[in-house]
């Protein structure tokens, strides 16, 4: 008959380091606009920190929208033209392309920072402007 204490795993001394006490967490960002982060009472940018109270915000839309006829529509219109003029319907196909950026800048306490946010669609400017409006409202 075997001894039940032989079934227990051997006691191995622990080499694990003690778990440090949790660090106090940083305040959650109120809003983030490109590389500008607004916290409670402070604005953090790559060029340094500035106070939130009294900050001046500007946003400029430097985007553009281009509407053009894609190359495949021209090719199909030429190829299908002899078939009862059906190919001419392909000349109605349009393609919209958005390009450019939105320029957001903030200034306060002798500091200035500017960031450029790329535009991906017609809703980009409205979304950035809502963030800038919120940043303006908490800056007052």
Keywords:
140 residues, four-stranded antiparallel beta sheet, three-stranded antiparallel beta sheet, 2 helices, alpha+beta
How would you describe this protein?
The protein is α+β, with helices and mostly antiparallel strands. The protein has a domain at 29-66 and 99-139. Helices cover 19% and strands 36% of the residues. It has 2 helices and 7 strands. It has helices spanning 71-80, 124-139, and strands at residues 31-33, 36-39, 42-45, 48-51, 56-68, 95-108, 111-118. Strands 1-2-3-4 form a 4-stranded antiparallel beta sheet, with helices on one face. It starts with 30 loop residues before the first strand and ends with a helix.
Short description:
The chain is of the alpha+beta class. Helices cover 19% and strands 36% of the residues.
List the helices and strands and how they pair.
Layout: E1 31-33, E2 36-39, E3 42-45, E4 48-51, E5 56-68, H1 71-80, E6 95-108, E7 111-118, H2 124-139
Antiparallel strand pairs: 1-2, 2-3, 3-4, 5-6, 6-7
Portion of residues in beta strands equals 35-45%
Structural class of the helix and strand makeup?
A: alpha+beta
Helix content: 10-25%
DSSP strand count: 7
**Count the helices. How many?**
2
List the secondary-structure elements in sequence, H or E.
Answer: EEEEEHEEH
Provide the gyration radius in Å.
Answer: 30 Å
The dominant shape is elongated
Low-confidence stretches: none
Averaged pLDDT: 85
Determine the N-to-C terminus distance: 82 Å
Largest sheet: 4 strands, antiparallel
Strand order of the largest sheet: 1-2-3-4
